[in-house]
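Today's session is about reading a structure prediction critically. Students often jump straight to the picture, but the first step is always the sequence itself: look for stretches that repeat, for charged clusters, for runs of hydrophobic residues. Only then move on to the predicted structure, which in these notes is written as discrete structure tokens rather than atom positions. Here is the chain we will use throughout the hour.
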Amino acid sequence: AVAYLGWRARAASGEGDAYIYEHGLSRETLDMGDQLVRSLMRMMVHDYEYDGDDAAFADEADSGVWTPEAVFEDPRTWMLCKAALCAAFVPQFVHCRAGHFITDANEDVHGHGSSCNQGYKPMANAYAAAGGALPSDWLAYSDSMKLTRVSIMESTAVAAPFVLLFSKSVGETPGAQGGGHVDFDGWRGALAGGHAS
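Below is the predicted structure for this chain, in token form.
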């Protein structure tokens, strides 16, 4: 997300390609994310009469400028940004367990050496059920490659609700004493206190 926002800010001043080259980014991935963000903004502006300061971002003729500072200082904007990334990359999610990335096929994958999330460690989950619940940390990623091991490329850390929001199939199995499980797109997560983890 920081790469996308930095690229948008530099592209507004005509230096987008230089930014991509400096940071070894994928123009196709950035363009795909940009198209999705703009289409979501257009829907908010036209269908729901959104008129926030960033409404001009929906207009192709006026790209507007989103800076990392503007996004990270407003939690609502950051949440929408993560939702847009998840929508673009679904079903390419891995969850983090004990410092490892695990696919829905229980395959161990790694962050690519050039990824800022290469050494990512899961954060504590206040809502996780005791004893083996999935952590709330997930990565939405753009692509993977296999050389000696499978490595994921550009990625953004997201919480379980973002993954659930864009899952194609979601079902709940209530537990005998509260809690239970939620099954979604080949994953299973524990429910504790009404929250998926």
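Discussion point for the tutorial: Residues 27-48 form the longest helix (22 residues).
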